Amino acid sequence: MAKILIVDDDLETIKLLENVIRSGGHTPYSVSESRNAIKAVESILPDVVLLDIMMAEINGIAICKLIKSDPAISHIPVIMVSALNDEGTKKDAFNAGANEFFTKPIYPNELNRQINHILAK
Fold this sequence. Notes:
Blueprint lengths: L2 E5 L3 H13 L3 E5 L5 H8 L3 E5 L7 H10 L8 E5 L4 H9 L4 E4 L4 H13 L1
Parallel strand pairs: 1-2, 1-3, 3-4, 4-5
């Protein structure tokens, strides 16, 4: 069972993602305040981070850059999760170091397939 950290400021989305992750046989952890994201990554050391882009305090792009710039946690794969589907947003996410980009709405089988694909690398 892999540890998957969800960083999203929407509690309903967190609950949905937790259920999807459990259905894929993994253990979900969650943070609803973006300012606590880095601390959570450092303490949990998840196998994958699911990171929302649009959050009130610190956006997911900035958090991804912080994760990827810290040698202690930069190896942790990040899947960006967003309602935004434009090329500019995707480019920003990958330039920040994201490993994958997943567009909402969330399709459980597809998300679990992406998580498992990253875990297999």
